[in-house]
Amino acid sequence: MTLERQLRFWLGALAGFVLFLWLFKGVLLPFVAGIALAYLLDPLADRLEGWGLSRGLAALTIVLAIFVALVAGLILVVPLLGHQLAGLLDRLPSLFTRLQELVGPWFDGELRKLLGGDAKALEGGLQTALSQGAGWVTRVLQSLWNGGQAIVSVLSILVISPVVAAYMLVDWDRMIGLIDAWVPPRHRDTVRLLAGRMDDAVSGFVRGQVSVCIAMGIYYGLGLALVGLEFGLLIGMMSGLLGIIPYVGFGSGLVVGLIVALVQYWPDWHGLVMVAAIFAGGQALEGWILTPHWVGRSVGLHPVWLLFSLFAFGSLFGFVGMLVAVPASAAIGVLTRFAIDQYLASPFYTGATPPGAAETPDG
Questions:
Q1: 3 state DSSP class of 306
Q2: Does position 144 have pLDDT exceeding 70, yes or no?
């Protein structure tokens, strides 16, 4: 009965937490962002506190620095990215038309020899697909742009999130100690072990991967802009942002960059080579230097599981769900591995008789 009551309690707590997220998902964004910011910056606050600053002064210094950097980024970078995104939306139909013109002669040439009369049908199918694809991509980008404008225009993210982060940084250690005191003493060691594993997984991935994404977004954006690629800064920054999912940022940026380069530079192939070289160098930099040193190789988050969690939590709770997807998936992974370890060590799996249990003869 004790195990049954515990199971009911934790399932009820989980259901209550999910219901809370679903009911208040419309107002949680600045608070979740502030808590996430405090979690990411807590080690820095501890270091400043070790240098002699009080906890409150360390938290205030960090939050003010982050706020100034965020405002500077909004003033300097966001208008430029917004201008490029608006230009991309205007140019997208013509880009697809130009791509169709470049691909069309290939259907009349080599592919016709291979497929005979079927080449025309395939060409018509490709033209239809390109036209529909252009309309779909335009609608998606416009919805993202409109949503991005709405998010940026909401001053609560800029005002409330730093305030929440400051209060959380000041009270972080006391809050963790209070939560630790709530845990029943007989389970405290196990809970601390699981919490430590979750923290290692989340901090190892989030802090490291966010740093990698920022570095790669700057690298790709500046590199593509320097070679003169249209919308290069936007493509590079988006590639870095999507890099939170391993290989997705690199792959999507490479494909979009090569398509834009093909339309912009053809028949000169030097532009294609430069774009490909930038992404190849970026992949080498990320895979051989940044990720091993900043993220590590054993954070316990498989790319497929991470991708699924981002889509699942995003569809359920919107942008707030995407913010909690990584820590939630890391926690689920840690709990799942712990449950599997408990199962493998249990008498149910090993077939051993529990201590004190009476053995029954076979048959």
A1: helix
A2: no
